[in-house]
Amino acid sequence: MIVRWKDNIVEIGAGRPVVIQSMTNTDTADVESSTKQVLELAQAGSELVRLTVNTPAAAKAIAEIRRRLDEAGCFVPLVGDFHYNGHKLLNEYPECAEALSKYRINPGNVGKGDKQEENFRTMIELAKKYDKPVRIGVNWGSLDQDLLARMMSENQKLENPLDAKEVLREALVRSAVENADRAVELGMKPSQVAISAKVSGVKDLIAVYRELEARCAYPLHLGLTEAGMGLKGTVSTTAALSVLLLENIGDTIRVSLTPEPGQSRTAEVELACEILQALGMRNFTPQVVSCPGCGRTTSCLFQELAKETQDFIKLRMPDWRKHNPGVENMNVAVMGCVVNGPGESRHANIGISLPGSGEAPVSPVFIDGKKWGSLKGPKMSEEFHSLIEEYVQKNYQNAKEQ
């Protein structure tokens, strides 16, 4: 699947790197706040950003949001999230249909009875008209109730009926695949259709996506829906997505965390990046390796330097990303004592081993496996960060600037 806006092309599936998506939580009709949040999400690493399109005001706003993003030099493709009235909004607001790069269709929310087929057909016809790919997005909170009731009834007639949860999983899979196939029957190219079947249980998600992988060749959008807040949401999402990604299931991911009050929406993008980087699938930023601390590290000095180093790298990444390609593959070590400190530091591109309890108050620095020298004193953090900057400028040079 190709999702694009102008010269920015995002390729999904067919063995390409897993793509990160996110979604705004602003009122789409509020152009200023929505544009600001899309910019933040894109800056954090989101390669597609989805917006709710649920009212005429939201549909009208999409083109202006797109225009402002373009003016800011941000060409991240926008995805329209449609429920209940998408067939009307896309038809009545052609500037919205054109400004979006992809449409998300929930077959459980496009209509009832005969209207379901009619409205689904309308959305597919509009996707064809504007040459936009679609995601058939099924969710167990809004599953086609007619399909589920029919399958439950059929299940009760079996000699050995399945558990109700198994029927629900099967309904999710069948709804996603059958509606994707229907989109192709209506004229969409198979390469223009992706599917998702989201649930909020880790084991359920794994089971559903294993079935989807076995039954179809469409690109799969992974996401644990309603994952929750804080540590619970982080752990559940990481557990579910990691199992599937390590089985080579999934072509694009979205993390659905409930933000803490006042927390930036970018937390979901940062977690998605961390998952892919931890699995060795993609690199987004230099890795900072640091030890957990023990009785040998009663001082918090190494903890402070590790935090300051992570903050320094985060601050510098926007510029490094533009001018120092490959910097995302760099490894930095900030260690806390003589036990593993020198060894871990030698394994990194650049590392420092701080003194533990009772050790001499100097910190040896290693660059590409060789001891460079030592740092000590109150300016050690600044000096170490200067060494990192020098290493980046020396080893990750933009060919166009040489």
Automatic annotation (TrEMBL):
It is an enzyme of class 1 (oxidoreductase). It catalyses: (2E)-4-hydroxy-3-methylbut-2-enyl diphosphate + oxidized [flavodoxin] + H2O + 2 H(+) = 2-C-methyl-D-erythritol 2,4-cyclic diphosphate + reduced [flavodoxin]. The keyword ATP-binding does not apply. [4Fe-4S] cluster binds at residues 291, 294, 337, 344. PANTHER family: 4-HYDROXY-3-METHYLBUT-2-EN-1-YL DIPHOSPHATE SYNTHASE, 4-HYDROXY-3-METHYLBUT-2-EN-1-YL DIPHOSPHATE SYNTHASE (FERREDOXIN), CHLOROPLASTIC. It comes from the Bacteria. Residues 287-389 form the IspG C-terminal domain. This is 4-hydroxy-3-methylbut-2-en-1-yl diphosphate synthase (flavodoxin). Binds 1 [4Fe-4S] cluster. It comes from Parasutterella excrementihominis YIT 11859. Its EC number is 1.17.7.3.
